[in-house]
Write a structure and sequence with these properties.
alpha+beta; Arc Repressor Mutant, subunit A; four-stranded antiparallel beta sheet; three-stranded antiparallel beta sheet; 9 helices; about 55% helix; about 10% strand
Length: about 230
């Protein structure tokens, strides 16, 4: 087993501890910077125990650490900055015996990106898959489901797909995670376009009127956002 597999195995083993795993998932869901007191209150444990597990996660590269005064005060008497934790870019991907699916994914993405016809075919395939997922979700939501219910259903389906949707300002649903982030870093236009087609397909399959998917790239979230137009 090589060094990378060793590191992945160690990171996976860290998350086997229930309290540590709960803390890690809480920080991921929060999406911002989390202090020790906040984390301890959120999952109902003592601050010292939260600090111990959060530091273990940071040491393993699963969380990033920053320092900032939460009071907003500065200068003498303001106290020491608080130690804060946030999700890191580290992703756990462990398969035993080892498989190299990421390698073939990168090769396929490179090939598709070099061909306009292949890029268009990827878009059609993503749209068709999204429509199939959305149609199944529509059945689950019921024939008489209103727009709010459809928005909730769309959010549930996107969560299952790994997008980690959350409500932002103005009724917008943003996606905290891109399940294809490693590929998007190398082929952003290709992957963002496929994501848009996929989510457009989900909305079409749901027959969710008044909800649109739009490209809104930015740091810390997926490039696609779901909007509910005010005049829809």
């Amino acid at each position: 087993m090589d060094r990378i597999a060793d590191e992945e195995l160690e990171a996976t083993a860290l998350l086997a501890e229930p309290v540590r795993r709960t803390l890690y998932l809480y920080v991921l869901r929060d999406g911002g910077e989390v202090g020790r007191d906040q984390a301890a209150r959120a999952i109902g444990i003592e601050r010292g125990l939260a600090a111990f597990h959060l530091d273990k996660l940071a040491d393993a590269g699963l969380l990033d650490v920053t320092y900032r005064r939460l009071s907003g005060r500065s200068g003498p008497g303001a106290g020491r900055p608080n130690k804060l934790y946030r999700r890191s870019a580290h992703q756990i991907d462990l398969t035993l015996p080892e498989r190299r699916y990421a390698l073939i994914a990168h090769l396929l993405a490179s090939a598709v990106a070099s061909s306009p016809a292949a890029t268009a075919a990827l878009g059609r395939a993503a749209l068709a898959l999204g429509e199939s997922i959305g149609a199944g979700a529509r059945v689950a939501a019921g024939r008489r489901a209103g727009r709010d219910a459809l928005m909730r259903t769309a959010k549930e389906r996107l969560a299952r797909m790994g997008f980690e949707p959350y409500h932002a300002e103005g009724g917008t649903i943003r996606l905290r995670n891109c399940p294809f982030d490693a590929l998007a870093n190398e082929h952003r236009e290709l992957i963002c376009g496929a994501n848009l087609e996929l989510i457009d397909g989900v909305l079409a399959g749901l027959r969710a009127t008044g909800i649109v998917a739009a490209l809104e790239p930015g740091a810390g979230h997926c490039c696609v956002a779901l909007k509910r137009p005010l005049q829809a």
